[in-house]
Write a structure and sequence with these properties.
single chain; alpha/beta; Signal recognition particle alu RNA binding heterodimer, srp9/1; 2,3-Dihydroxybiphenyl 1,2-Dioxygenase, domain 1; 2 domains; 4-stranded mixed beta sheet; globular
């Protein structure tokens, strides 16, 4: 069995990303030195680190393999208890960019999509028919 345990973002704007996710997730990050941070959720960690942590990793001498903020195919999804309340809270965060306003999909998920400072899409959703 395979379990997803971490989504690991690289960012050239580590401090800005950490401050953003601390506000959005309302979770205190766990710092490992000055270049790596974990936000621990009950299911999976969201980690953010400087690209140089990977590009110059111990025993690695190849070409630059990651670039911060370059991904345009990733959506980071968080299930929340009340997406309407989260949407109201998000709207009060300075600089938040909503890319898909709050809506209900035909499969009974209600969601709002927004961008983080590196332009990754974040999806907060609520299952309206939990089992």
């Amino acid at each position: 069995m395979k379990r997803l345990v971490c989504v690991d973002l690289t960012s050239d704007n580590l401090q800005t990303m950490v401050e953003f996710y601390e506000q959005v997730l309302q979770i205190k990050p766990k710092w490992y030195g000055t270049g790596y941070v974990d936000f621990v959720t009950p299911v999976c960690r969201l980690s953010i680190q400087k690209p140089d942590n990977i590009n110059f990793h111990e025993n690695y001498s190849g070409p630059r393999i990651v670039t911060g903020g370059a991904n345009r195919s990733l959506i980071i999804v968080f299930q929340v208890d009340d997406v309407d309340a989260e949407n109201e809270r998000l709207m009060k965060i300075d600089g938040i960019q909503i890319v898909k306003p709050i809506s209900t999909q035909t499969w009974n998920y209600r969601s709002v999509w927004f961008r983080d400072p590196d332009r990754n899409i974040v999806n907060f959703y609520q299952n309206l028919n939990p089992r």
